[in-house]
Amino acid sequence: MRLQDLSNKQVVLGSGISGVAVARELLNAKKSVVMIDAGYPRNIIASKKERLSYQRMFVSLKFKLQEMSFAYANYKSLARIKEQGFNSIGSLAQGGLSNLWGANIDPYEDSDLDTFTYKKDDIKEISKELTNYYTNYSNQGVIAGRKIQSIDNRCLDLISKRLDEDSRVCFKPATIALARKDFDSKRECSFHRDCGADCPNKEIFNAKYELDDLLKHKNFTYIKGIYIKSVDKLSDGYLLRTIRLENQSKSLFKAKSVFCCLGTLSTTKLVLSMKKAINVNLPLLSTPAATFILFSLKKKKETMEVLPFANAVFQISISGQKVGGCLFPFPSDFLLNYLPKMKIINWLLNIARALIFDRLMIALVNFSSDYSSNTLLLDKDDNLVISSLGHSANLKNTFKNCMNLLKQVFKKEGYYVFPFKGKLLDAGEDIHIGGTLPMEQQPSEYACNQYGELSECKNFFITDPSALKRLAGKGHTFNSVVQSIYVVRNYLKRETK
Ligand SMILES: Cc1cc2nc3c(=O)[nH]c(=O)nc-3n(C[C@H](O)[C@H](O)[C@H](O)COP(=O)(O)OP(=O)(O)OC[C@H]3O[C@@H](n4cnc5c(N)ncnc54)[C@H](O)[C@@H]3O)c2cc1C
After folding, report:
1. How many CB atoms sit inside 10 A of residue 276's CB?
2. Does 86 score more than 50 pLDDT?
3. Contact yes or no for 4/252 (Cβ under 8 A)
4. Domains of the chain
5. Residue 455 pLDDT
6. Closest approach atom of ligand 1 to CA 270
């Protein structure tokens, strides 16, 4: 079996948004970086059975597009994921799940970091740099919050008002990570023309584009098509046991410093198998979600060039907790992709749009991970078993109170929850998972120290959402990347001492 010694390099596992951010940071510090990745290209299509199962599990319209299925294809079978009452997702694609994400970036506030090993001040600079980076990736980048003409008029209206006298609900423009439209290479957004909103200057930030840029760097090596099966801890480093996806041939890589960014499920599985932790239950944090539709006589303005993403975010303070949410204009043109291209269909759709679709908005609400009740374990047959205990009474109660408050607030503005109530989504359907190997001051065996280094594993860093201590009721990717950069900078600082 072939052994490649990478001991004199920094080894980054995975090319998702975490992996590319970590690699960029190491390259900026003039390190030689090797990235190892399953790295599925875009031309892979998941089987029909697999596509249908994801469509059933997740509400996002993105799962309806066959060409996007490369982002989750084969993940559960290769990683041997077993689910008990939980809908999980993972990726083996170049760019990982960022091929599918909504790119809503919402920095954690001081209070969201109460239990973390660092304070907001410690990550202030990184937060600022990353916000600029994701939203001004090139000259075509825009921040939804600044270019307000890109926001749906109804959302804009809500943002400008203080809706609740006690300020229990407040609205803000959403900040979306947007990348450039590269006219020369004809690079297009994954949803170009599919989402129905024609937005020629904007596309969602995707880690794959940054990977393309990293590939031009002389100190960067990308080894793709490799599935990392397990890791052995050696006295002087780590031995990665891998399989080449193309022909199932096995190969070994030796590394001294590893930055593990394989996504929460793969990273946790690798760590549990390295620590030979069979049937050890770890909490899997998620941000339980609910969704509802708002109907109003107010219409979306036809003339507006509206982003097909979250157009406004809101925060609800309820029972001493913060619950996050976002509003999307209803993507009425999306249906055009599924219906036969006939004049009569267009005509009927236009009537439906004028009467109903343009008057609808979709709302998504996320509760913090304090309300999640999932666990995972590695069984003796190498399956990663994810279980959910279902929605707790506490979650159901807070959801009910939340809906009552939101109904009142929206009604005042002429919006009605449609049909009559919202719905708590199934466990995992919120898509945000992490917190299996959290950074702690005094880490247990299955946790990381305040430098993101896995307990008893020198120079093995967890740099993806697995190392988050808690997930606030909002998307966690931005905060997870901020934390990962913080880990890399601390590593570089300590290394030079
Ligand atoms: C529909 C959808 C919408 C979302 N919307 C938002 C949002 O609006 N805001 C937000 O904050 N978050 C959102 N998310 C979550 C966000 O996409 C993820 O949190 C983020 O992309 C995770 O990045 P990552 O780099 O940690 O892992 P991943 O993106 O999962 O990347 C993992 C990488 O590791 C590689 N890999 C995995 N296992 C192996 C293995 N065993 N061997 C070799 N390589 C492997 C893969 O090829 C991939 O490159 C959304 C997710 C989805 C699916």
Report:
1. 9
2. yes
3. yes
4. 1-137+205-287+435-497 (3.50.50.60)
5. 98
6. 41
* Alpha carbon of 342 to ligand 1 centroid (Å): 38
Enter the DSSP assignment of 107.
P
Contact in structure between 457 and 323 (CB atoms under 8 Å): no
Task: Give distance in angstroms: CA of 241 to centre of ligand 1.
Answer: 22
Which helix (H) or strand (E) segment holds residue 153: the answer is helix 153-159
492 alpha-carbon distance from chain centroid: 26
Give the neighbor-by-neighbor strand order of the sheet with 2-5: 2-5, 250-255, 237-244, 226-234
Which positions ≥6 away from 56 have C-beta within 8 Å?
none
How many DSSP H helices and E strands does the chain contain? 10, 22
State pLDDT tens for residues 376-401.
999 999 999 999 999 999 999 999 99
Among 235, 226, 289, 234, smallest CA distance to 262 is for 226
Whole-model pTM: value is 0.93
Contact 367, 406 (CB under 8 A): no
Helix (H) or strand (E) holding 234: strand 226-234
Residue 233: per-residue pLDDT: 98
Distance (angstroms) between ligand 1 centre and the Cα of 99 equals 8
Q: Which residues contact 419 (CB under 8 A, 6 or more apart)?
A: 293
Q: What is the DSSP string of 424-435?
A: EPPTTTT--EE-
- Position 196 scores a pLDDT of 40
The predicted pLDDT at position 145 comes to: 38
Residue 136's pLDDT is what?
Answer: 57
Structure tokens at 431: 């898509």
Are 36 and 223 in contact, with CB atoms under 8 Å apart? Answer: yes
Residues paired with residue 454 on neighbouring β-strands, in sequence order: 448
Largest Cα span, the chain: 72
Return the residue whose CA atom lies nearest to atom 48 of ligand 1: 96
Alpha helices in 8-137 (DSSP H): 17-28, 48-57, 75-79, 124-135
Phi, psi of 365 (to 5 degrees): -120, 135
pLDDT in tens, 194-238: 444 444 445 678 899 899 999 999 999 999 999 999 999 999 999
The pLDDT value given to residue 346: 77
Measured by CA distance, the residue closest to atom 3 of ligand 1 is: 101
